[in-house]
Design a protein that fits this description.
By secondary structure, the chain is an alpha/beta fold. It contains four helices and seven strands, in the order E-H-E-E-H-H-H-E-E-E-E.
């Protein structure tokens, strides 16, 4: 798997409140550009839309420490989605056979490795940004 080098640094901070503030600002900037569901256009998927709202409901299933750890990489994940044309690791979701999971690898300017996961519905061809998490 090839790794995409992002130009955006991860968010600073150690507490959830600090990191959440930066992530929400980034999300609101994207959300303000559309009247409907927020999305980014992905270079890998030939400029198709990748919707961002599923990520936030997925984050509420995690504990506070894990949320903070994942939200630090939110801007890096958005950068990767927009610009990366690197090949992803794609496999069928074992829990839902009608979904395909795509996993992309990225690296921050500080040389920290992270993964971004996208789910794709086979029937509707809809893509949702599902998760971002650091390695280790």
């Amino acid at each position: 798997m090839k790794i995409y080098q992002t130009k955006i640094k991860k968010f600073p901070g150690t507490e959830f409140g600090e990191v959440h503030e930066y992530a929400v600002k980034t999300y609101k900037a994207i959300k303000s550009k559309t009247k409907r569901r927020p999305y980014v256009r992905s270079a890998y998927f030939k400029k198709e839309k990748v919707f961002l709202d599923y990520f936030w409901s997925h984050m509420h299933q995690k504990n506070w420490r894990d949320r903070t750890r994942r939200l630090k990489y939110y801007a890096c994940a958005i950068d990767l989605l927009k610009h990366s044309q690197m090949e992803s690791v794609s496999k069928q979701n074992p829990n839902k056979p009608q979904e395909i999971l795509h996993r992309f690898a990225g690296m921050t300017p500080d040389k920290e490795l992270f993964y971004v996961q996208i789910r794709e519905d086979k029937k509707t061809d809809r893509k949702d940004f599902m998760s971002v998490y650091p390695v280790g």
